[in-house]
Design goal:
The chain has six helices and no strands. By secondary structure, the protein is mainly alpha-helical. The protein is elongated. 16% of the residues are buried.
Amino acid sequence: MTSAPSESELRCQYLSGHVVACPGCGYNLHGLTGDRCPECSQEIELAIRLARPRLGHWVAAVSGLAAGAGAAGAIICVLTALSVVTGFDDLLGLCSVPAAWLVPQGSLLALLSTMRGRVWFRARSASAQLAVIAASWLATVAFVIIFTLKVLGT
């Protein structure tokens, strides 16, 4: 009974018949017999991946969450800096709205950005994906409107 070839044997066999550049430094790995690039010393592995991953919907959802979390974080930083520079402590009171938005949007962004989150998202139907995209962007727009109303009201 023949045993299955090892990962090292498969990698060497593949590289003996293909011209492949090291993803780290671009060195030609054709004929490589070890497991590291001779140029940059990074470990080389043979992997299976999607030829054209369909990530457009996932990127749209993550972008919406990132826009909201980023805007909230930037506003908190600006308000804090202005409060310190001017001594006008009332500016810190405006931080409650972006802080309330940053926590859930940042948390959802962190969850969706993981491999498990991406796999979960891609397993949803197209309509469910579009709902997540719409919710992430609507939350960002709602944050901007609510924060603007809060600033204009003070």
